[in-house]
Write a structure and sequence with these properties.
The structure is a homotrimer of 343-residue chains.
Chain A: E1 3-4, H1 5-12, E2 15-17, E3 23-24, E4 26-27, E5 37-41, H2 49-52, E6 57-61, E7 73-77, H3 80-94, E8 100-101, E9 106-107, E10 112-113, E11 118-119, E12 124-125, E13 130-131, E14 136-137, E15 142-143, E16 148-149, E17 154-155, E18 160-161, E19 166-167, E20 172-173, E21 178-181, E22 186-189, E23 192-195, E24 201-204, E25 209-210, E26 215-217, E27 223-226, E28 231-232, E29 237-238, E30 243-244, E31 249-250, E32 255-256, E33 261-262, E34 267-268, E35 273-274, E36 279-280, E37 285-286, E38 291-292, E39 301-303, E40 308-309, H4 310-321, H5 323-342
Parallel strand pairs in A: 4-5, 5-6, 6-7, 8-11, 9-12, 10-13, 11-14, 12-15, 13-16, 14-17, 15-18, 16-19, 17-20, 18-21, 19-24, 20-25, 21-26, 24-27, 25-28, 26-29, 27-30, 28-31, 29-32, 30-33, 31-34, 32-35, 33-36, 34-37, 35-38, 37-39
Antiparallel strand pairs in A: 1-3, 2-7, 22-23, 39-40
Family (chains A, B, C): Belongs to the transferase hexapeptide repeat family. LpxD subfamily.
Function (chains A, B, C): Catalyzes the N-acylation of UDP-3-O-acylglucosamine using 3-hydroxyacyl-ACP as the acyl donor. Is involved in the biosynthesis of lipid A, a phosphorylated glycolipid that anchors the lipopolysaccharide to the outer membrane of the cell.
Pathway (chains A, B, C): Bacterial outer membrane biogenesis; LPS lipid A biosynthesis
């Protein structure tokens, strides 16, 4: 990457203060700027970096500017945060998409591969799998029998997608995530546990992103479903027959047990556990590390293990921290009471 | 898959009510039945689906039937749940096992491969490894030096089995699980941590199933052991020198720290943590998210972090939720007491 | 492995009591010794195994010896634990390092590979990647564009290292760990979440070891950093822009959210969660399963969810367990108070 201040100002419609030929070759957070790098300042509390940053070019929200000249070259815009986003997206697009089938990929003759698809070396595509137009399948991916992947997806190295699972358009699956492994279903018998065949699949709707090292199990029968636009972080467990709605955000290391249903627009914190066979509504917030063991209504915020109302949990926790003091007060009351009795 | 109602009735010894030629091409949960699909009803609370399901054929426990005819074709049996299991197992078996060595597998010349073994493309089998009769090793698996895998195992794509680990017969290891990585052992020194070599292995006994993305570390010396018939869900951590007995069920994202011993027939919930160097008995239940930091006796049920008796935890938690009210009562008592003193 | 007692005594400068030709072919923990195996006794509480162990040769701290002869051959040393470590390290070194490029690795013509590097079959090395002298890259690893790996590293099978990430010297990355996956960053809009490009990288300094199945995300801009000498167990989540200092030990299944800064020499327990945008000092201990949601000062020990001072948490937890009794005492006080009022 190598751009001049004036090229960047052109991309985002900004006004240059300083050297329009200043060259940038990288991007830094403002706290750790480097010579030759670009950064941005969108908040008053970072404005002091205008005086001290080593960055060569800084995009700044115009209301934060008060002087005529600064050491770095400034690109003044209305909202530096938004402009910087625009720039990052543009840069990402410039990287281009990969396409073409690399040597050393193993693709079954009955698989159907769309136009402009990229398939990396050491990727294995099983019989009757379909990969939609413009999708990029990185090296060392496993794609099972009859899997369908939509258009413009990105499946990273080492992801495993088992037989008959379906992935929509514009999805991202990061490295080493496993989609469609067997659900955890066993019948107890006196001699041990007998496996219950897991014959369903996983359906992932459009615009879903799934982080690395996640496990999303196939349904026993029917489908485990991840709804449109839902974003899933790393190391997350989604058990068999779970149904997740649209536009949820689920943070790292959360786990959802079998057959639970989750609505839309929920925020589920890191390391949260949700038991099986319950219903979580929509617009719910579940605080990190909570253990949800009962239905949750729309718009509730819950916390604790087992989870209760967020405010109730915090109010109780304040007293929990104060329990030694509370017990002292009870001791005093008892002593006073005895004193009175002994009077 | 394509069967007629009369073929299915034949498999499970059921009696047809309706069209014996009704054709099914898939299976649905009864709550979301589809035309052309098979489902089952084994409980009274689902009996109303007899009137509304779109399924073409439904297997029903005979005691739930009251009419002479229904819209879907009915297959009446004694216990619809059991009959459906029989059918699913049958269907699974019909899928067949893979066998043969695919082109592009890398197998060391000193490795010993049993009869009817399947080894997929991009799988790497190291020197002196042994793979028993009928086992299926999917593509992209790594098998280290001197590893022994028994008969009729299934090792899914991307699993890694490190040097000298031993796996019994009829085991299943799901995708991206790592067996025999180094235990987490370091000696602190003033200059930093010095690695303690991890020279032991992992022994997995017969009939064990291990989910996806698990980490089961090799022993420092000796063996980390998973006992016969134990079933392990996804994303689980088993540290070095842990010994797990027979027929345990361990739910997703649980973790067991080094050198801990676990008996038989235990149920360990999701996201449970168990500290190192303790002993958990047999027939113990550990509730989800509990943190076990001390020995647990046979047949105990524990909960909480740190974990205590399940009933005690719940009783205390009720009061925890009620702490604001409890503190108000103490305030009142103190006020009354002062009032009396001031009288 | 096959050594005589006198060879072993030679390695560690020990004195033989018994048969100097006793042959050992393996190593056992003293609790489960086997004929033909070596073990060690460094503590008084294991000294009784001198009489009962089946091991052929035992290294023993000399102060634990009281007789002239024992059934197994004894190698007497000053500190049996240290001598045993020396021996294990020696044995590990004898195993040798792998080197050479195996057939079937895919290495871009612009990649720069140092001397004595091992690259296994099915490993994919992208353009302009650099791998330093003596490093071992096992089979089925993915190395992205412009990645730099230092000297004498070991990258295990199935690890994924994404574009432009940097790894120092003497690092170990275990199987299926993902370094440099996208950070979890999305902009909420009324139509759903819009991905924020993750354009930074991950920098891993020298002497770092990272367990299996970890996810270490690349920074949005700038770098996610793991400091020199830090050791990370399995299944751990490190989010974008986290900065971790030197010589930390982080136990399995812990998670650290975005932009948090961690000092040096901390001990972070298993399944700990640390929220984003906070600062944890140095020499801090965080107990297992704790949820840290605020800054932590140097040398503090914290526990609980949310985490508070370790001692405070334990003191409160004692009363938590006793809450039913405490509530009874309040009931009594209220009854007494009523009695008095009614007098």
């Amino acid at each position: 990457m190598e751009f001049t201040a004036s090229q960047i100002a052109g991309f985002i419609g900004g006004k240059i203060i300083g050297d329009e030929n200043a060259l940038i070759t990288g991007v830094s957070p403002i706290e750790s700027g480097e010579t030759g790098h670009l950064s941005f300042i969108a908040q008053d509390r970072f404005a002091h970096y205008l005086e001290t940053s080593k960055c060569s070019v800084i995009i700044v929200s115009e209301n934060l500017l008060s002087k005529d000249t600064y050491a770095p070259t400034i690109i003044a815009v209305k909202d530096a945060y938004l402009s910087f986003q625009v720039l990052m997206n543009l840069y990402q697009e410039m990287q281009g998409r990969k396409s073409g089938i690399e040597n050393g990929a193993s693709i079954h003759e009955t698989a159907v591969i769309g136009e402009n698809v990229y398939i990396g070396t050491f990727t294995y595509v099983s019989e009757k799998a379909k990969i939609g137009e413009g999708s990029q399948i990185y090296p060392q991916v496993y794609i099972g029998k009859g899997v369908k992947i939509g258009k413009n997806c990105k499946i990273d190295s080492g992801a495993r997608i088992y037989d008959y699972c379906i992935i929509g358009d514009n999805c991202v699956v990061h490295s080493n995530t496993v989609i469609g492994g067997d659900g955890f279903g066993f019948q107890p018998t006196p001699d041990g546990f007998k496996k219950i065949p897991q014959l369903g699949n996983v359906i992932i709707e459009d615009d879903v992103e799934i982080g690395s090292n996640c496990s999303i199990d196939r349904a026993t029968i029917g489908s485990t479903v991840i709804g449109k636009g839902t974003k899933i972080d790393n190391l997350i467990q989604i058990a068999h027959n779970v149904k997740i709605g649209k536009n949820n955000v689920i943070a790292a290391q959360a786990g959802i047990a079998g057959s639970t249903t989750i609505g839309d627009w929920n925020q589920i914190g890191g390391q949260v556990g949700i038991v099986g066979h319950i219903k979580v509504g929509s617009q719910v917030k579940i605080q990190a590390q909570s253990g949800v063991n009962t239905h949750v209504n729309d718009k509730d915020t819950v916390y604790g293990s087992p989870a209760i109302s967020y405010n109730d949990y915090l109010r109780s926790y304040v007293h929990f921290r104060n329990l030694p003091e509370i017990v002292k007060r009870i001791n005093n009351l008892e002593n006073n009471s005895k004193d009175k009795t002994n009077e």
